[in-house]
Amino acid sequence: MSLGVPLVIYSVLLVIIGLAGGSLPQVLKMTHSRMQMVISFVGGLMLGIGILHLLPHAFVQLKSIDQTALGVILGLTAMFIFLRWFHFHDHEPPEAILQAPENLVALSVHHHDHDHDLGHDHDHSHDAPGHCHHPRHRPTWAMILSGLAIHTLLDGMALGASIQSDLTHNHLLLPGFGTYLAIILHKPLDTLTISSMMMRENVAWKSRVMWIIGYCLVCPLGALLFLAGISQLGDIQKEILGMVLAFSAGVFICIALSDLLPEIEFHSHDRVKLTTLLLAGIGLAFAISWAEPSHQHRITPKIIDEYIPPK
């Protein structure tokens, strides 16, 4: 299969799914609880892909546990710092964004006031007197879009690395599919946020559509740039590919946990549904990993002998 074929397929599907996510505010009421159900499943999938797919592929390329661990911690730390400084990754229902412009800022700190569709009202405020966490500025749709664009560019690098790794091992049926699935299921949450922010600021419908299409194409662009760049690296291809895979694993793990961990305290009444969806996402990632050819990243005595140098 030509490399361009999966990239074209991935690009078209990303645009379709992204536009669908951006249109959700107009066709479906996405309450906080419903958002968390989606996030639990997608978060579980991203966590599973990061650990069960990207991480083993990185180890196969690098042949070093230490270098693989270094790549993971670099990716996780870089994404953590990025999230902490730019606060672009909040996934709240459109009503919260449209009704209260400051909500996206408030949600990036320790104040939670959720109105669930199950009739549960919570007011969890952890702000102590004299200890104000709230930033002074309000994020605009352009700020949110810029932050998410950098995030999706990293997704594109992860996709490119996964495609290259699968091609290296002759896994030609939609190479990089596991990583792509985690990305595409997460994109509607991002475009939902972007679209809601644009609606709040009265951006015209045609402009919203064009910006969302452009945002969705950043991911395949990142994959294309990575694949074009790595082909020029010669002898150090495997090392760079392995480090990018390990870095991407850290990014996926950080994104998954940033979605999953903040809501643990506030969803005890939904614990069965959310836990089930989390496990379903991890289970899907495991199924994708298990379906790959056994020689790709399963540890065998031969591989162990090859990777562990003699004393």
In short:
70% of the residues lie in helices and 1% in strands. With 311 residues, it is mainly alpha-helical. It has a two-stranded antiparallel sheet.
Strand content: under 5%
Number of domains: 1
Give the uncertain stretches in residue-range form.
Answer: 101-136
- N- to C-terminal separation? 43 Å
Form type: globular
Give the strand line-up of the largest sheet.
1-2
- Mean of all residue-level pLDDT scores: 78
Word description of this protein:
This protein is an all-alpha fold and 311 residues long. The chain has one domain (4-109, 138-307). The chain contains eleven helices and two strands, in the order αααααββαααααα. The chain has helices at 4-27, 32-62, 65-86, 94-99, 103-106, 141-168, 177-200, 205-230, 237-260, 271-291, 301-307, and strands spanning 111-112, 124-125. It has a two-stranded antiparallel sheet. Helix 3 packs across helix 9 (237-260). The termini are far apart. The relative contact order is 0.22. The model is unreliable at 101-136 (pLDDT under 50).
List the helices and strands and how they pair.
Blueprint: H1 4-27, H2 32-62, H3 65-86, H4 94-99, H5 103-106, E1 111-112, E2 124-125, H6 141-168, H7 177-200, H8 205-230, H9 237-260, H10 271-291, H11 301-307
Antiparallel strand pairs: 1-2
Highlighted features:
1% strand; single chain; 311 residues; two-stranded antiparallel sheet; mainly alpha
